């Protein structure tokens, strides 16, 4: 699936894209406003979709002067599943957070990065996850950690249909990579979505080697 295009999981048509726009805000939209968001669709195609959805009652159509406006009918029986689909990205991140919380103190930090974080996923994109392990937990801890890493990769695929690509660092490996200014860590600092630990801790580990990070996409 494409986390940035959640309705594509159930329909490849323009209808899903239009519904995603309407479900994104409790507001009315004109055809031109929807068109500015869905730049690859034609205004005429958007108009046809909106009118078709209005005949189903899913969309409320009104006219202000000569301007047609549309909004999602939140009282419609289909509104709840439509809004749930629109929130699939947040639902995925929340579910991942809940799962990683069970790892306890063995996990120091985790973040989704790459196309899943930047909103540029394709249908066949991997979902990239960085894991930073806390300390040295011995051989038994290694076995538990290995099992957990395998399981979280499996869960990501089960939840989304995409391969989970895990990048893992032991504590000493992470310190060495941070000191060397590893580019992947810089990417995570700028665009990653935090799902375990805190972004402030992660950036603090990188600061001595590469200066202050803005962390503009932090999900604390």
UniProtKB/TrEMBL annotation:
Supply the InterPro entries for this chain.
NT_sf (IPR043519), Polymerase_NTP_transf_dom (IPR002934)
Q: Please give the CDD domains that the UniProt record associates with this protein.
A: NT_KNTase_like (cd05403)
Cite the SUPFAM superfamilies for this sequence.
Nucleotidyltransferase (SSF81301)
Q: Enumerate the spans annotated as Polymerase nucleotidyl transferase domain.
A: 98-132
Pfam families in the record: NTP_transf_2 (PF01909)
Q: Name one GO molecular function term.
A: nucleotidyltransferase activity
Task: Using the record for this protein, list the coiled-coil segments as residue ranges, or answer none.
Answer: none
The identity of this protein, by name, is Polymerase nucleotidyl transferase domain-containing protein
- Supply the source organism for this entry: Gordonia insulae
């Amino acid at each position: 699936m494409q986390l940035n295009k959640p309705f594509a999981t159930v329909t490849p048509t323009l209808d899903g894209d239009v519904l995603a726009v309407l479900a994104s805000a409790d507001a009315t939209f004109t055809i031109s406003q929807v068109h500015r968001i869905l730049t690859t669709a034609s205004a005429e195609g958007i108009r046809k979709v909106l009118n078709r959805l209005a005949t189903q009652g899913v969309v409320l159509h009104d006219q202000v002067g000569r301007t047609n406006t549309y909004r999602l009918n939140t009282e419609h029986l289909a509104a709840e599943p439509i809004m749930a689909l629109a929130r699939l990205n947040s639902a995925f991140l929340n579910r991942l957070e809940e799962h990683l919380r069970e790892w306890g103190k063995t996990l120091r930090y985790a973040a989704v990065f790459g196309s899943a974080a930047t909103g540029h996923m394709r249908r066949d994109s991997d979902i990239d996850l960085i894991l930073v392990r806390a300390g040295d937990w011995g051989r038994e801890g290694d076995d538990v950690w290995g099992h957990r890493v395998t399981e979280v990769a499996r869960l990501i695929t089960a939840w989304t249909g995409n391969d989970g690509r895990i990048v893992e660092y032991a504590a000493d490996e992470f310190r060495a990579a941070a000191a060397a200014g590893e580019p992947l860590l810089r990417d995570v600092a700028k665009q990653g979505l935090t799902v375990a630990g805190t972004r402030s801790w992660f950036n603090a580990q990188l600061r001595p080697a590469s200066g202050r990070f803005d962390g503009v996409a932090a999900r604390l």
